[in-house]
Write a structure and sequence with these properties.
CATH architecture of one domain: 3-Layer(aba) Sandwich
CATH topology of one domain: Protein Transport Mog1p, Chain A
Helix content: 10-25%
Structural class: alpha+beta
Number of strands: 8
Number of helices: 5
Order of helices and strands: HEHEEEHHEEEEH
Radius of gyration: 18 Å
Shape: globular
Strand content: 25-35%
Length: about 280
């Protein structure tokens, strides 16, 4: 996770960056049609790159919770989590610090196409067709910051193995960056231009819970009316028994602080490990 400064009093952001407004042409925390896709989805200047669904998982042996044991002491095969189970894994309103307000998740109609395009770029298998169920939290906002999460169950361990191949691919960060720039070119408001856009996916927990199998950080810099606006992206990829979960955050001017992100990641990771 990218370390940042702490929030001040509950419900407040320190300056600069937190809570700053940029006028009617710049509305970063409006509800967006979003899904945790493996391809970036951008709506307005402060859109979040939402990464995962199938592109995040890690082999669960020793990482995603302990399989239950059947009678006689043998390990029972994991069963894909139901939608009701997944809804309990994602962020709940009570998980967020004071001041964060939730707006309902809305699906993106281009999701499957974006996933498939990213998999073609990386050269790995698209596992979207093997999803069993998927749950998405509200999009929680405070000032210009947004935090949200998802949890998805899959049919088999081979789906997760395929996805970790994607996660570990040296092509992944480059493919994300290319797709981000392409979508920004058609999504920004009139007069806005992209100066740079990049994201880096790093395998490992970054010091977090053991079933946090990768993290990502990204930056989008856009120039609008002579002003440069920087949007910072943070993502954590989490596993459980046949489960892939993700927590995403974005903010203008500075990353959402680790002091806010880390407890939320730990909460979701604990739930995902139990399945």
């Amino acid at each position: 996770m990218t370390d940042g400064q702490d929030y001040g009093q509950p419900g407040q952001y320190p300056q600069p960056g937190y809570g700053q407004q940029y006028g009617p042409q710049f509305q970063p925390h409006q509800p967006r049609h979003r899904k945790r896709s493996r391809a970036p989805l951008y709506a307005g200047i402060a859109g979040l790159i939402v990464i995962a669904g199938g592109g995040t998982a890690y082999a669960l042996a020793g990482h995603g919770g302990t399989p239950s044991r059947a009678a006689g002491g043998t390990k029972a095969a994991a069963k894909p989590a139901s939608l009701s189970q997944l809804k309990k894994i994602v962020l709940q309103p009570a998980d967020l610090p004071a001041g964060w307000k939730g707006t309902a998740y809305q699906a993106d109609p281009n999701d499957s196409a974006n996933d498939a395009a990213l998999m073609r770029c990386v050269g790995t298998r698209d596992t979207d067709g093997d999803k069993v169920a998927e749950a998405n939290s509200d999009n929680f906002g405070l000032g210009n910051a947004t935090i949200s999460s998802s949890a998805t169950s899959y049919r088999s361990q081979s789906d997760l193995g395929s996805d970790v191949t994607t996660l570990h691919s040296p092509k992944l960060s480059t493919c994300f960056g290319q797709m981000m720039k392409k979508q920004l070119a058609t999504s920004l408001p009139a007069g806005a231009t992209t100066e740079s856009a990049s994201i880096k996916i790093t395998p490992g927990s970054a010091g977090g819970p053991a079933n946090v199998v990768a993290t990502g950080t990204g930056t989008i810099k856009v120039r609008l009316d002579g002003q440069q606006v920087s949007v910072y992206l943070t993502v954590a990829f989490i596993t459980g028994p046949l489960i892939e979960s993700e927590l995403d955050a974005e903010n203008v001017g500075t990353p959402v602080p680790a002091s806010v992100m880390n407890p939320l990641v730990a909460t979701v990771a604990t739930r995902a490990a139990k399945g």
